[in-house]
Amino acid sequence: VPELRFDPLRREWVAYATERNDRTFLPKDFCPLCPSGPGGRSEVPLDTFEVVVFENRFPAIGPDRVNGRPVRPPATGCEVVVYTPEHDLTLAKLPPDRARLLVDVWADRYTDLGARPEVAYVYIFENKGEEVGVTLHHPHGQIYALPFVPPFAKAELEAARERLDAGGGCLHCETIDREAAGPRTVFAGGSLIAFVPHAARWPYEVHVYPRRHVGSIAELNGTERADLADALLRTTRAYDTHFGFSTPYVMALHQAPTDGEAWPQAHMHFEFYPPHRRRDRLKYLAGVELGAGTFVNDTRPEETAAHLRKAAELAVSNPLGPA
Amino acid sequence: VKGDLARRELELPDGRYLITYERKPKGGGA
After folding, report:
1. What predicted TM-score, i.e. pTM, was given to this entire model?
2. A304-to-A14, A114, A301 alpha-carbon distances in Å
3. Could you give the CA distance from residue A180 to residue A193 in angstroms, rounded to a whole number?
4. How far is B8 from chain A (nearest CA, A)?
5. A18-27, A124-133, A201-210: which range is least confident on average?
6. Which residues from chain A sit within 8 angstroms of residue B21, using beta carbons?
7. What is the pLDDT of residue B30?
8. ipTM, 2 decimals?
9. Which residues, 6+ apart, have CB-to-CB distance to A206 below 8 Å?
10. Interface test with B, best of A19, A33, A49 (most B CBs within 10 A)
11. B14–A74 C-beta distance less than 8 A
12. What 3 state SS string does A267-289 have?
């Protein structure tokens, strides 16, 4: 059973899930996420599906198990979101209608998981590529239904709350207004905008925002959801086009906690962290990043934004890119 | 079904849940 321990010096929770040592690791002749038909041995015993969500067999947190079965009703826990039955696709290569469905699925999971009394934060993310520790290549993401607000989201929320309490507006909205007119825009169209942030930690980090102030993905209207799906495709295709291969990344959705409190300062957005600093070099987290918490980069965000802006334009004319 | 989002929940043999999402309802509950 996973265990959470709190470190009072760092003021952070650390999860221990020793059963994850036994999870499937880059299988060569079998994919646990492909549909295997009724009674099949994969995680998805269906003939086919569009998008499927299931409880992670190797959760990093909760739920407790009795006699090998998860305790009901479910509380905190981890889910896997499989984007498509097609093993060789990626988010970048999803058809637009599947990406649009995925946005609806995320919104539904946010609402569903967030309604559980024990869940303070619904953290939706994707790890893509062996460089960021992926153990299964089939296109999928994950959701952690956490009993606490994780530290990165908490720091953003506290900064935004201070601005509101001081009589200012939304810190995120101010950022959007500034970036929309600046040199770090990757693309802007419709109700969404994508940019490399002013103080990006990763060379090719991109943030994707709805321009309207909305706290969670569930609050997006139909137009915004369609625009978000398009923006996620454009971002990932821009990466593939720029680097010339199917680019690894971590994709993280930051949004309002679900702990029952009011979070007027929350402004939902996606953040992408690709580990590559150039086509043939990875950025590693080392002494300064891990030991001091300060990121050092060898390219400026304005430069990488220009690369991605050009790639995003190319990707529009060649949406499936070179990878 | 929420809007045009069809959702079907199943139980896996070990008790975990699995939810399918489709754009259009194809039967089997919501």
Report:
1. 0.94
2. 33, 36, 5
3. 7
4. 10
5. A18-27
6. 50-53, 101, 104-105, 108
7. 40
8. 0.92
9. A186, A194, A195, A196, A235, A271, A272, A308
10. A49
11. no
12. CCEEEEECCEEECCEECCCCHHH
